[in-house]
Amino acid sequence: MDVVVVVAVIAALFVLIGVAEPLAGRLRLPYSVILAGLGIVIGAAASFFLRTDLTDALNPVAEAILNFPVRSNVFLYVFLPTLLFQVTLGMNLRRMLDDWVPIVVLAVVAVVFSTVVVGWSLSTVSGLSIVTCLLVGAIVSTTDPSAVVSIFRSIAAPRRLARIVEGESLMNDAAAIAIFGLLMGFVMQGVPDPELGPALARFPLILLGGAGVGVLFGQAAVMAMAAFGRFELAQLSLSVAVPYLAYIAAEQILGASGVIAVVAAGLTVNVSAPGALSPGTWQNMREMWDLLAHWSGALIFVLAALLIPRLLEGLDWTDVGLILVVTAAALLARALILFGLLPALARLRLSPYVERPYRTAILWGGLRGAVTLALALAVTESARVPDDIQRMVGVLATGYTLFTLVIQGSTLRLVISRLRLDALSPLDAALAKQVVAVALQSVREDVSSATENYGLSRDIVRSEAKSFGERLEGAVKAAENSAEILDRDRVTLGLIALAGAERDMILDRFRERAVSPRLTERILSDVDRLLEQARQSGRLGYRRAARRAVGIDPSFKLAVRIYNRLGISYPLARLTADRFEILLLQGLVLRDLDTFIDTRIRRIHGRRVAEILHDLLEQRGEAVEQALDGLRLQYPGYAEELERRFIRRTALRLEKREYDLLFEEGLIGVELHTDLLHRLDRRFSREDRRPALDIVLQKAELAKQFPLFSELDEPTLKRLSRALVTRYVDEGDVIVTRGSVPDTVYFIASGAVELRASNQSWRLGRGELFGQLAMLTKSARRAEVRAIAPSTLLALDEERFRRLLRRSKAIQTAVRKSAEKRGIEVPELERIAKRRRAAEKREREAAESPDKASKAAE
């Protein structure tokens, strides 16, 4: 095909993409459905003009459209990596992990189950071989990421629903394409009843190999982009190459899953790039990929839709019946997973509960699109597949795709509306009227003062004021007549608003380079959890999410375990430094939120609700400050370095703001402004490098500051610091269970614990120890010890503790006091004291004997 014709067709496609979006908005239909419809119309029109005798003038255009060089490999190697990579870059991984069980069930289990159900159903009515029917089942079992994601975003679906659907559509391509490749090999070999064992044995290589290739390419790309420093265009160009290189390397070199490789590469860049690139570069990269994915998603739909008339040639009523069988079987299989398996897993507490309206929306939102058509096209293009199988696979896959796009896609918005997933709750509807009334009152005051300054005509001002007053009066009456909102509900709404304000403040800090993009993503995911928990469970959910945000997460505990057992300190040092920065930022934002409550929330919800929100913020602030104090006690020198760095970054941010203001006011020119910003960028780059944290050195400093170790000499203290094992526990964690063997003593470096035994309880804080009494009395532990705040403990084994006890009078005193408080006798402690008194007596006698000898000599 002539190059000019190809370029003209591509340009026409972009015109079509530009027209489709406003058309979709006007018709209130999903964008992808409009694109598919336009593609089908164009493809059908081109076929019509080639066959009709009405005119030959449009034949060159029709031939260019129908013969456009689009094959299955174009979809799989050009468009699919772009879509997958962009979705992974935009994912909030921490929030996605909250629903990882339903996502994996839908992405893997549902695909396998649907393949089997569709294949078995089709084989019973069609007369086709079971392998061919299973191949059709694999092709129609994968939801299309571009179709699903665009539709759920366009209808403003609830965040959690959109997350589950996006996660499923992202991951199930790998499972479906892997099964497709396996079955396609059997079809091309003409094996009617294949042995699946050897083929299934390759699945670990397909999945793990793809993941390994993706991580390798993603990490290499991040390292290269970080090395390029200020060359942003080079960094963006490298990011474009990553998904394609990973896909090709996995598929062609290793024989693994290219889809898994792209997803793994995207996740690796998502996790590593924010900490390696500047905030501006990371933001620009995501915006660039949003645009690339928009074009890819649109082109993939249009080009795939152009093929539909060709794939459906010779359609008869038998084919329609088989399409209906495939449709019914696929919907049934998906329904059984959604309404059977997921609720069962939730009842067994193996999965978070997914609400019934969400499951209904997921069932109807499982759209098929270009991925399904691309796989079907790959079958029709293979010369090793018999012609009758080529035709049947093409017809069935295309027919089912049309059903999901035309029927499900066009009615999905209606289904969401009927499920009331896009509607305001009665509480929000009542609040909306009050918000409008309060907002209009503020607007009236501002407009009144503004019109006086503008010097406008009094008649015009009076006329507009009257009109505005009527609107305000109507809003006030509507608010007065609305349903009464309980204080409990007002607190919930206030917490939601508070979480939204917290998110905005964090984003402002990110734009001002006060916090790195990597940590910003983590903090924002905690804020999103605050918002969702407040919306679901009110004050209780907000508190639960706030405790989780301050607490010790599993990755931190894993890093501690790695350090304690293997002596590898880097992961723990990195996560500890992250925790420092996050807590510092949380403390600052919480102080600003107090002002937000007084200036905004109080006006809508009243004084009582504002006081409750202030109390909740105060509790959060105390928890953050307690956690920070614990870190400062553990790492005093490092805490000071980080706080100094934070002040320097704040000063640079304010300096940049001053330069921008001077430039906007015209007091400095563009050349000077640019030069000043370049200087600031260099200083920002120096401050972006966080000081290193030496865990081993800091542990020795912590032991030196511990009150019970204060009398130890330097060599003993160094040996002790090497023997102490750091253990971090979160609020509610059980440290010691009743009846366990006493082999460890714990010293509380920060935080607090509670001992419970025989309807009694004791609370211990920083500087105290526990676990020693059961060890010294050689009896099973009679108390359960539970953390009542995020705490840091220093653990010491029995042998070293006994040696330390014999040497340290301070520890002996502490053990004696704790025994007296609990009414426990410790004979061994008395023996140690007796030996110490005897040793002291001998020392005194030895000191006195020279004096006696000298007196006798005199």
From TrEMBL:
GO CC annotation, single: plasma membrane
Family annotation (SUPFAM superfamilies): cAMP-binding domain-like
Residues covered by region (Disordered): 835-858
Keyword Manganese recorded: no
Compositionally biased tracts (Basic and acidic residues): 840-858
Transmembrane segments: 6-24, 31-50, 74-93, 100-122, 128-152, 173-191, 203-226, 256-277, 289-308, 320-346, 358-380, 392-416
Location in the cell: Cell membrane
Residue stretches in coiled coil: none
GO MF annotations, alphabetized: potassium:proton antiporter activity; sodium:proton antiporter activity
Membrane topology field: Multi-pass membrane protein
Matches recorded under Pfam families: cNMP_binding, Na_H_Exchanger
InterPro entries xrefs: Cation/H_exchanger_CPA1, Cation/H_exchanger_TM, cNMP-bd_dom, cNMP-bd_dom_sf, RmlC-like_jellyroll
Limits of the Cyclic nucleotide-binding domain: 708-822
Alphabetical GO biological process terms: regulation of intracellular pH; sodium ion import across plasma membrane
Classification via PANTHER family: SODIUM/HYDROGEN EXCHANGER, SODIUM_HYDROGEN EXCHANGER 7
This protein's name: Na(+)/H(+) antiporter ApNhaP
Organism of derivation: Roseivivax jejudonensis
